DNA sequence: CATGCCATGTAAGCTGTTACATGATTCG
DNA sequence: CGAATCATGTAACAGCTTACATGGCATG
């Protein structure tokens, strides 16, 4: 039940149309909650139905026309409640770890190339995050609470990618012990 | 498309009934791929249909009777192919990071308790993993390839939980800067 | 007016979750 | 035999993915 809250957050930061939201879910918001345009349009419909958001009056109801949404008070209350609600972390579900376990049973022939590929992808993501950090959060600058929270979230992304690059490097080293 | 492969891996390690699989998905396998008994029974049916596994002949087809499954050659081939198939890492989708971002917009009142709760949960999980490591992988003992791969997977779990405990600790510290 | 792009949507299928149903076995 | 437990399912629904459909607008 997180997608509606991701959308509410995005719309509170800046009222947008469906396509603009989609673009933002490919960048900042998408770094910790991804979504496709189909998901977004469907969810916008539900949120409007529920009275949590509304289309700005300027927009005509015809297809192919841009439609901007903004959050209503009920939507803000819903989001505020969700932020502090007790919700346990989901158990891990990672295909790559599973594949290593499977390799223990059927053999790891050819798996190394896939590890190398993943390592490159995670390194690239890590570089992107650190560039954002250098640009948006220079030392001795964070002041508002929103800044501190955004920086924390970015740090989460950075440390997660750091974990993956380190773990994959270790894994590849282990492969070369007995190649 | 990972659940069928998780089941194939589990059945290759040891032929089992649906309920036995469910129990194993609450322990070792479940540490990186969780599944409920409903998912497992449904998937067992599909795998049998596809000719990847079969029920051992001893079992009668009546309801409430134990039914053991084993992997057929086609199932092993399917799993072998999957292990080396190129499959990109999924974009991150983490509700807690999202909640922090939302807190930047609607305020972080009451969020601290939730962070404390999550920290405790991750600490417990980390303790469980390190206990397993101490028991199953004592120093200077890993020899077979299967051992090395299993240890790598466990290290993944340990380092992931280490990341979360560290990140949550940092987050709580940041909250106390301006409480 | 044809092409490409902007923008919003529909439909089908798969995965995962939640709640409930049914039969077999064991033990007091 | 009544209750608890083992074991296998069914049903309904929510969320996500993939492919496709439709209309508006700008530009050569």
Automatic annotation (TrEMBL), chains A, B:
Residues 92-174 form the Transcription regulator PadR C-terminal domain. It comes from the Bacteria. Residues 7-80 form the Transcription regulator PadR N-terminal domain. InterPro entries: Tscrpt_reg_PadR_C, Tscrpt_reg_PadR_N, WH-like_DNA-bd_sf, WH_DNA-bd_sf. This is PadR family transcriptional regulator.
């Amino acid at each position: 039940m997180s997608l509606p809250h991701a959308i509410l957050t995005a719309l509170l930061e800046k009222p947008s149309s469906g396509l603009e939201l989609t673009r933002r879910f490919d960048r900042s918001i998408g770094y910790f909650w991804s979504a496709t345009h189909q998901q977004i349009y469907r969810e916008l419909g539900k949120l409007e139905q529920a009275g949590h958001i509304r289309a700005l009056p300027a927009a005509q109801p015809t297809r192919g026309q841009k439609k901007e949404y903004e959050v209503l008070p009920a939507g803000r209350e819903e989001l505020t409640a969700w932020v502090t609600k007790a919700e346990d972390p989901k158990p891990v579900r990672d295909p790559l770890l599973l594949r290593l376990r499977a390799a223990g049973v059927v053999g790891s022939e050819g798996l190394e190339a896939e590890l190398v590929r993943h390592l490159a992808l995670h390194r690239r993501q890590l570089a992107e995050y650190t560039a954002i950090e250098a640009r948006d959060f220079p030392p001795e600058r964070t002041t508002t609470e929103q800044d501190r929270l955004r920086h924390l979230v970015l740090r989460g992304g950075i440390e997660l990618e750091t974990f993956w690059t380190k773990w994959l490097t270790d894994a590849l080293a282990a492969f070369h012990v007995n190649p």
